[in-house]
Specification:
Blueprint (H helix, E strand, L loop, with lengths): L3 E11 L8 E6 L7 H11 L3 E6 L8 E6 L4 E2 L3 H13 L9 E6 L2 E8 L5 E5 L4 E5 L2 H7 L13 E4 L3 E6 L3 H6 L4 H7 L8 E8 L2 E8 L4 E4 L3 H13 L10 E6 L7 E7 L8 E5 L1 E12 L2
Parallel strand pairs: 2-3, 4-6, 11-12, 13-15
Antiparallel strand pairs: 1-2, 1-18, 3-4, 4-5, 6-7, 7-8, 8-17, 9-10, 10-11, 12-13, 13-14, 15-16, 16-17
Helix pairs in contact: 3-5
Length: 298
Amino acid sequence: MTQTKSYPYTVVDVFTTEPLSGNSLAVFPEASELDAVAMQKIARELNLTETAFVLPATRSDCAARVRIFTPTKELSFAGHPTVGTAFVLLQKGIVSSSCHEFLLEEEFGPIPLRIEAGTPPLIWLRTPAIHEGRCLDGSLCARALGLEPHDLLAVEPQMLNAGNPTVVVAVKDKAAVDRAWLDLAGLRSLKDMESESFCVFVFAPTPNGAYSRMFAPEYGIPEDPATGSSTGPLAAFMMRRGLFSNAAGTRFVSEQGTRMGRRSLLHVDIHGENGTDGIYIGGQVTPIIQAVMTLNAR
C-alpha cells in the first residue's frame, strides 16, 4: 500500500502590500524530509520564480536553514525568498515576533535580517559583499536588450555579484526600460567571456531611486518581478557613478515588475558613506495561499 506524506506550504507576494502583485514565493516551513531532487521537482511543479524550503539550521547562530530553487536550478542566495521566508517564519512563530534581528542560513552563508515594525512589517536583509566584475560594451548590451546605443546612459554596464552574478545596465528613461527584452539569443551575445550563468538588470534613475527590470532566462526566469539580490549591486552601481546620493542614511526605492503587471517596491537603506556599513534591501510581504502538497513517501 502506497504511503503518502503531506507538506504544508504558504504562498506569499513579496515586496508588495497588494495581493497578486510583487514577486510570488512558495515557502515549505517543514521540509526536513525532502531531499534536493524532490525540492527541485516541487519548484518545477509550482513554477513560481522561486520556492523556499526551511530546514533546521546547522549553525547555532542561525534561526533556520533555507534552500532556494527556481524552476530549473538551486540558488545559493536570493533576496525575495529570504524576505518572504522570514515573514512566514515570523507569522508561524518559528521565529519569535519579539525578535527584531536574526540570521537565516543559506547555501551562500548566514544572511542577517532585521524587522522594522509596521502593519505589515518592513523586513530588511543585509546584502552580502558585492564583488565588482568586468565592464561590458554598451553597444553590445543595447543590442542584446533590443535597444539602441543612444538609449543607454553614458556609463559602462558592469558585472556585479552579491550572490548572483548580474550585469547592470543604465538607460535614460522608463520608456527604454519598458522596451527592453532579453532572450537566450541576446544573452548568448553577452556570454563570450563568462562561463557561469548570470542575469541582466536594466534600470533608469528616477527622483525616488530607480525603475527597473531583470531578465534571467538561464535560470528559467524570463523576467523577474523583484530581485533583491541584484538591488544591492544596483545601489552600489548608482552611488559609484553619481546616479544617486552616497550619503550615510540615504534611502531610496527601486520599482520593478511594473511592465509585467507585478509592481514591486524594493526599499534600499544605505549604512555608512558609499554603503561601507552595509546596504540593506527591504520590503513588505502579503500572504495569499495556505495549502498542502501530498507526495508518495519514499
